[in-house]
């Protein structure tokens, strides 16, 4: 009888040690997984969430909205239902992303790269689509400048913006100037009207 209790105690100790070791291994495995998660993958998880986030941008202040799409090096931020305007944000312009605890935890737990197609769509791809649509935009630069106009061309690392008054169509007579803007100087591109990019 005494030996039975002795062996039961040994089994309990061994079980406790194995549980502690497994918990430590699980914790370390989670730390290693998190060490490999880029911001982009967390934004992909946020795009499946309906809660708004606040995004601080280099030189362009903060914007609030829902993450709706994520590309290779950009994401789309949709405003509230009142404006529903979409802002394209290059990842390189992000200073921080503010979110609720639930959104932060979802973005950690469900982080993943998304589809292979979205992983290949760079900011140049999106800007070339805006060229095709002839959409009026406000380009916010990392130095705080805001430029209103229409994107005429988008190259491999820059775009051409024809400047004109917001709310007016791009006509040769309404263009007041042109700017060539490197992608690295871009903090955000806000569409003048609600668009189906969201």
TrEMBL record:
Q: Which domain of life is it from?
A: Bacteria
Q: What is this protein called?
A: Uncharacterized protein
Q: What organism is recorded for this protein? A: Microbacterium dextranolyticum
